[in-house]
TrEMBL record, chains A, B, C, D:
SUPFAM superfamilies in UniProt: Glyceraldehyde-3-phosphate dehydrogenase-like, C-terminal domain, NAD(P)-binding Rossmann-fold domains
Keyword set includes Oxidoreductase: yes
Organism: Paenibacillus darwinianus
Name of the protein this chain belongs to: Dehydrogenase
Lineage: Bacteria, Bacillati, Bacillota, Bacilli, Bacillales
An annotated Gene Ontology molecular function: nucleotide binding
Keywords annotated in UniProt: Oxidoreductase
Location of the GFO/IDH/MocA-like oxidoreductase domain: 141-287
Domain (Gfo/Idh/MocA-like oxidoreductase N-terminal) ranges: 4-131
Amino acid sequence: MRTLKVAMIGGGFMGKAHSLAYAGMPMFFWPAPAIPVRQTVVDINDALAKEAADRYGFANYSSDWRRVIEDPEIDIIDIVTPNNTHAEIAIAAAQAGKHIISEKPLARTTEEAKQMLEAVNKAGVKHMVAFNYRRTPAVTLAKKYIEEGAIGNILNFRGTYLQDWSADPNSPLSWRFRKDIAGSGTLGDIATHVIDFARYLVGEITEVMGTSNTWIKERPVQSGGADKLGAVKAAGDVQKQTVDVDDEISTLVRFENGAVGSIEATRNAWGRNNFLTFEIHGDKGSLSFNYERRDELQVCFSNDPDDRRGFRTIYTGPAHPNGGALWPIPALGIGYGETKIIEAHDFIASIVDDTEVSPNFYDGYRISVISDAILESAASGKWVRTGV
Amino acid sequence: MRTLKVAMIGGGFMGKAHSLAYAGMPMFFWPAPAIPVRQTVVDINDALAKEAADRYGFANYSSDWRRVIEDPEIDIIDIVTPNNTHAEIAIAAAQAGKHIISEKPLARTTEEAKQMLEAVNKAGVKHMVAFNYRRTPAVTLAKKYIEEGAIGNILNFRGTYLQDWSADPNSPLSWRFRKDIAGSGTLGDIATHVIDFARYLVGEITEVMGTSNTWIKERPVQSGGADKLGAVKAAGDVQKQTVDVDDEISTLVRFENGAVGSIEATRNAWGRNNFLTFEIHGDKGSLSFNYERRDELQVCFSNDPDDRRGFRTIYTGPAHPNGGALWPIPALGIGYGETKIIEAHDFIASIVDDTEVSPNFYDGYRISVISDAILESAASGKWVRTGV
Amino acid sequence: MRTLKVAMIGGGFMGKAHSLAYAGMPMFFWPAPAIPVRQTVVDINDALAKEAADRYGFANYSSDWRRVIEDPEIDIIDIVTPNNTHAEIAIAAAQAGKHIISEKPLARTTEEAKQMLEAVNKAGVKHMVAFNYRRTPAVTLAKKYIEEGAIGNILNFRGTYLQDWSADPNSPLSWRFRKDIAGSGTLGDIATHVIDFARYLVGEITEVMGTSNTWIKERPVQSGGADKLGAVKAAGDVQKQTVDVDDEISTLVRFENGAVGSIEATRNAWGRNNFLTFEIHGDKGSLSFNYERRDELQVCFSNDPDDRRGFRTIYTGPAHPNGGALWPIPALGIGYGETKIIEAHDFIASIVDDTEVSPNFYDGYRISVISDAILESAASGKWVRTGV
Amino acid sequence: MRTLKVAMIGGGFMGKAHSLAYAGMPMFFWPAPAIPVRQTVVDINDALAKEAADRYGFANYSSDWRRVIEDPEIDIIDIVTPNNTHAEIAIAAAQAGKHIISEKPLARTTEEAKQMLEAVNKAGVKHMVAFNYRRTPAVTLAKKYIEEGAIGNILNFRGTYLQDWSADPNSPLSWRFRKDIAGSGTLGDIATHVIDFARYLVGEITEVMGTSNTWIKERPVQSGGADKLGAVKAAGDVQKQTVDVDDEISTLVRFENGAVGSIEATRNAWGRNNFLTFEIHGDKGSLSFNYERRDELQVCFSNDPDDRRGFRTIYTGPAHPNGGALWPIPALGIGYGETKIIEAHDFIASIVDDTEVSPNFYDGYRISVISDAILESAASGKWVRTGV
């Protein structure tokens, strides 16, 4: 059976998720298009890299990502590092002829994203951005219903991504709060998932009108470099540093097909953990989804009889997209891992079959353009077109 | 025991709700500040008015509202007619020295609302606008938590009002779809309830930036004059007429206290019936409410221990605002009737105690100003200030 | 228009609910079969009775229920007193030729219930027991679906009624905790509503096997006679008295049609307020209901396509039973009041039309037989047949 | 780093789950107590076994489980075969000195279970039964709350496990419907998970009183041997065979500590997919859990202030049991895989640390005893003690 050798650059929590995906992919999708081999993992020093190899089941390790990219054995470069490194690694990997999957957001800036897109296009390699949430089976089912026309023409999209892990002003200023590393705050980190949903389910966004807020103006400097999200909180007399990215984004959007919508994302929503939702109204029905209850899709069909119409709670399973590959009954339990396993499958299948996969670097670039437009509109108070 | 004699102008579904409120108010609030007496009901002809009197338990009836307003026996004028008549009736009632409660929206236009406000101020009578939903016990409880500081400073308000009774293009063009009668569409009819929530719970709205859409461009002419909402649908080869009001409103808002927010309202949301919701994020907690499950308020307190923090589902009852007056245990069942009973009580108490009640004509006027600003921003594509 | 004059015996919280029902019934059901007139209210002394008349809108009052029953003007006797008085009043009312509606449970004992049933049968008057919850529109809709065969043959019924108002050992020993007055505890007070659901929706119960527990063995003696449920709690060094009724009932049941089921009721379920639920599995579908979210019925149809099958959340409204009489759109808000308004309507319609209404004294008697069988099985540890 | 070599006997869907667990365990729990090595997989013939090795990442394969058990390299035997083979394999594995994890139920009969327990006790090896659902983080959190006394003394346990994958009479008669292979039907397959919850969270069950039903008396013979659950349905004129196991179990239970409860399990609940729930009432609070929404635990604390008391929705995450090993924020997504990863960890840790793990073969034996008692009580109509 064909194998594809993966070098994973980065060993944080995303490394865990991606490693699980490579291990689990052929277990779920069988016969697999190809077996991904965890060949080499890279971290910032040899000790960390060795530990990552042991932990995540990689055959080799290295602290020199440039050398790994040059390794002729490697087929796929998987980028799970902070945002400020995506462009450099991806462009080098493309030049070395490797297929590339990058964590989201694709880059800190649209300029970086554009260069990355040009590099992969020039190299003719496969490329993907890891907006994994759209691969939640319930989201894929929503896409299927829409394509079948089951909810008719889409009028309205309402998406949110609400979290609270940084709502506490004492949660540390990790790299996710630094513009030089992350590019933006909530916008790039989580709002982009909603933008990905919107483009995937409704279509291209042509115009935006947003607001942006930084509710917590300064945060304690993080001790230690790890990406612990909100788990570690500072206490006592700690040094604080100014936050130069957004905590919250709220925007109106217009779609190419005439639909309208709104997108809101915040990390200051006490009680909301991973509240990634959408509600879509079509002229023949509605869809509603909340990732916190991700086994479920809510759908209402207008052509149900008047006395039997209402949202149906569909638990995804064998009767739905990718159902044969997943668990044998609905609600056995889709977790974060499964979304990453499907993502890994679809990327590898695109390499084997030489087809396009989505979301790819073009999508990542477009999401960057839209993100910039949101910030521009927030600054100017005016609608901003996204150049489509 | 003191009594206050009510003349109710209009006999549609709102007449039913108000009549039940007058009958039920002293049963719930006892001792009552005063007993409201259903004295006279007015409808467009004597036959309809007599039927309304029989049905709603009024002592007298009339088809001449002007004469009823002049009746020295009458203490309160209750306006439950379509929007185009509110101003004329209310101004005449004020000039006659009557206390006035008017259904919402207060008027078709800000100019009308302003005249009404001036009239009641000049007359020194009590005045109220029947935005009853804020009197849902769970909403009043949200207000109490906010006033106690339980969720801290408010950062964000997200409100929606989603319905589907006119999502079918064959649902008839009742007066609610005619600008000359209603003033606006979804905006005045239901978005105003969300605006009322926003002002009640967060504070004055200073600036808006909205969109407005009319999804169904024409509708069948309604046969019969009754306000049946979506219940009666046209079939076959019927005459259609252009809709000149909005089906949907979506707007970003800014509040005087620095909070931001969004408000969306539509009557084209298949599967949503009376989906009047808000979610509020403060720096110390969050609130979430959905009128479709109106016995419940969701609240999260940030100062709960890390391993015990989450939204609490509070069922309102004796331990909460107006609890002593309502049912003896939570979830026995708050319905539309109860919101109107509390409203009737608070209005009558304001008359007896000579205090201000809210929302009053000033609130109705402000909501009209904000509504106009939303339409203006939708037309201009620019943020519009609301003059505060 | 025909009127029917009501004498209501008792003025507690149930008196409030019934009074609202009489006032509101013609407002909702129009043309009304007859207008109920609140003629006379009876309480234990003249002062209380006068206050009840003022509060609940009755024309007269009395402290002598026997005289009121003899009053030839009175058509209907409405019994809203504690359980120990139901039999005596009802039998006297039947002998006086009055139609009778009694609060539930019908009586303290099966023997009392049997005598009451014989009395109304002999007198040929109409009779009803106020198990109002089955008149929640969503429950009536469940009945309709079942009658249409939409869920096929019923296999299983699971019903619960969970409350917490007496979970605190300091909540007072009101009459509801005294066997001499109430007959039983949770069983008669709330489990009987579930038994009523079971018989209404599935059919006659032939056999039971239950357990019974009294978790809180003694409670503070209540100061004051009012029925305050859990609202008033004792503090400090109070006198306590032994509880001689059940706090909790759990039982397996078998139905005449071959279905099986379980019924559980407790007042010691912290966090459950009025958690009256059922779930029914048929061979072609399922139903699920929770009164705490009473505007909704959940229904699943097996013949939906595999990829679109799931529970539908139906919000009851104009398209459903009694929809024309209630509010013009779903989720406008069904409360406790509406269930009582429908109950009043159906009772009065049965008088005017000379038809049987259900649940009547026969149903009340059967529920008493079943309740006794549950207690007997709890004592003996053996299945007990209910004599059908 | 220490490794433990696993031989997995069986390659169906459970093989997938266990293989993912071994691969993922050190990724989540790091440093791992030991790294599990997927050494050998066994299936019924070499071709299937080879395919399983390729798919699930095992180094070797075999069709001779007896030889594999004798392999001195192997540390752990993992039994994921149908129930009728558990005893023979486990006893042989114990005699060969291997640590054993077996899928549930432990055996077809109590006699088999007893022999297995004796074998592992005699051999002094570690043993576990794979009731994985209790390792859902929300269930572990429930256990923690109970142990902390946060809900006080437990009064009541109500557990259900409702599915619908075999509600269709055309779903095939797989081995799960054959007494000779499965031992029992719904009882052994899913009710045992609820019994495991009950014993884990509340304590030993001393007495049961149940009913048992087989709703679908015959089913189509399955073509092909695979365990496809309900996914494949027969059509047309197929051969049918009698079902000799239960479709549904409903039982009352009594616990050693005085609590009571009920357990219901069925595979005929249309619309319920994996509806594994419990609700527990203590004298100081309540817990509620539904695996279909497994990231959440509902908890109510009686000592919350009256106006702030209600069920809290806790999303499990870093602040809760195993939180450090799982995902960095709550609701990122616990799936079936994570429950198995935790299970694998705890089993391997028990080997390394030489401690007892639970549920082990003693628990499996007790659950078998209780299951037998349920069937006996269903047959006799009498309470049956479980010998504790």
